[in-house]
Predict the 3D structure of the following.
Amino acid sequence: MLFLVPLFAAAGFLRISQEGQSVPSEAVPSEKQTCAAVGAVEQAYMGTDGCRLLVRTQTVQTAGVRRQQELLVLVYAEGEAPCPGSCVALSGQILPLSKADNPGQFDEYEYYRAQGISAKLYVDSIRVLSEGRGLKRGFWLLKRKLSEVFHSVLPEEQAGVLDAMLLAEKGMLSDGVKELYRDSGLSHTLVVSGLHLSMLGLGFYRLLRRLRLGANASMAAAGGMVLCFCGFAGTGIPAVRAAVMLLMSLFSGLFGKTYDAPTGLAAAALLVLLRQPLQLFQAGFLLSFGAVAGILIFQPLFERMGLARIGSSLSVQLVLTPVTLWFFYELPVYSVFLNLVILPFLSLLLMLGLLTGAGGILYPGIGRFFAGGVNAILNGYEAVCRLNESLPGRRLCFGRPQIWQLALYLILTAVFYLLCRKYEKKRCLGFLLLLGVFLLPEKGRWQAAFLSVGQGDCAVLQSGKLTVLVDAGSSIRGASGRILVPYLKYLGDDTIEYAFVSHADSDHYSMLEELLQEMAEGKSKIAVQTLILPEAGMGEESAEKLALLAGQAGVEVITFSAGDRLTGEQLELVCLYPTESLGPGKHDRNDTSLALRVRLPGAEFLFVGDLPASAEREVLEILKIFGEREVRELSKASGERKDESAAQDSGIARYLKSAHHGSRYSNSEELLAYFAGCRAIISCGKNNRYGHPHAETLERMERWGVESRITWQTGAVLVSEKGLTCFTAE
């Protein structure tokens, strides 16, 4: 059979290539547009603020053009959801799926494209043309009834947990519960998994056998039960994997075969990938199949070492560590031990949950009776998760590993497996310590990232273990948790040593404000040690409020003015402005912006906030003074005469953080002349109401040979010792 492997590989490559092709541009607009569509509801999910539908369209009308178009669209609607199988007419705003603009950011486009979804639609009205019928309607009504029972006999958060575990309805889960379970490494308990199907399928089979029903009939009935549950709870990856493996286990005896778990796992993976081949690159697929593969490969080895009680958890952790770090950048340290406490009660919880729902449908008192046990177990789960929150070092943030690190980990894991097969098992345990080698950070590296934050500014400078933030503002709601925090985790960094705010405009500090608020509430996963504000800007109400919030969060607050310095880890930062010439009294906020010159090995950056052109000229005078001093220092060190141009051409790449998001009133001729032939980064949002960057600014840059990068076009702009790269480019 091995000769078929290349054939299957070639077929898979062609299938993925076809799936990866973009939907025709006329089908999904590149901008938000008014849309009317007719289609069939394939799946429906209820949430706390409405419902989500997956609709397979038959006709789509945009920009006055109506066409026959089959698209799978994610629909957001208010009110009750129509049942799956219904034909609906929709009207609202259709949007393309958004791509990640920054490292670490959730990529909506890739995630939903793997599921075959082409666009999202926020509806103003939804009209049911015909109701769904048959099993789909029956399953939907049963789910709604069970959910009503859960929410009538249990606290809201616990009812949401049962909705997720038994009905595959995650929309009713509160964000707090999701985060609590995720931080503890217990998110897998909140999905319909193999345990559900094993309990139902095998449990039903054994019950029928005890009732003296024939083996073949019992297998057929149990198989039907599994298929019905998949139809009821949905065809998520864990459910499909478990169903295929369980059905192969049940029916293998009918054909005189012995069930082989690896074959069952491979068959399940093949079925999933034939339907949705791009799932191969998604976390859900890799985590689900990787966990079972780890148990099949390594659990027997750990059992022979006398580690049977924790062998399963160790096996899963061994295989999933690189996957977890690749997608989530950190590891929950105590998850292995927490699973030992929680998993033994999961079967009982699922059984009590089913009895609560089924009993509550028959008579409310029965539901309340079994809900007592559910409440006790879920309270225990929450207590375990809260305990985890109080433990030191509960999360290790490593960042996303490099490809070579993943390859090294796989090689070391394979060597460990071979050693365990050949030598005494317990001696090989020490070899596992070598797996930590792949997590060692690369020394001496630095990077400056100008994040794409919409209409705002945010630059993250990292050198060694030092992280410096220069502004952190955005026009995007919740941008701290969606952009800044994921990027820092991507780097493997959970501490900002110094956070500079150039001036007290919200588009320069809103994300930092969110972060400080979370720190003050004890909810932040990122720590800020020192906040630095412009001395000339103190007295502004917004600056004082930010300083007060920082104090409540336990963050040191200091001020900078011209001449102040910060050095460390190959980074040298000098404040050039505001100077004493600004004088006391009230000033326009932009006039008080910090101007910072930052040097890293082989690169120099100038940050000027929102300074107007008049202040830029003063900054340039100071820069020239600094340049003359450095020339003299170079001359003394080498014993040779060097002029300023020689110092500028000494291999140092220079970058300008464009003033005021590319405004015409900044980025003066003098400033651009100083940076002639260099590069400028313009941070602004697409179609912003200010018209940034202004055409005059871009013309001036072109005239002086300053090559610009605009964040809304390129995504995050990343500068390192290797040069400048853009995260994405349209």
